[in-house]
Fold:
Amino acid sequence: MSLLPPFFNVMLHPKIRRSITQLIIGTILFSVYAFAQVNTGLPTLELKIGVYRIQAELADTPRTREVGLMNRTSMPTNSGMLFVFEQKAGHCFWMSNTKIPLSIAFIADDGKIVNIEEMQAQTTNNHCPQAPVRYALEMNKQWFSERVIVPGMVIQGLPKK
Structure:
């Protein structure tokens, strides 16, 4: 079976046709894999901020942090994803392959929110903390602003590493 147009079958040597076909199949398989990445079955923990309780999925490995909320089409209202890093740093986020708009709170070790950013779906703009952090919490877009949660407020229940 050839994925090439008929005129290529006549013009190209069989080995070249086979190589091109394998390249096309490989590209298709890679694309399906890259776009179908979704974190599932992650551990969850409950976080609190003021009167609000959050069910947060835990992304605490390089792989789970890389995939994040990619390819999700929705997220329950008081749910989110907590990113935990080994070291404090200027961990920046972007929204490539993320289908839902999100808000992100960058959080210091003591639980204080350093800054909050709004992030549009399917963009590659960098969203970075204003100070080195180990935690970031992604929620549905405007979740923080709709509840008047601002920098300086404390999130309780963060895991200690």
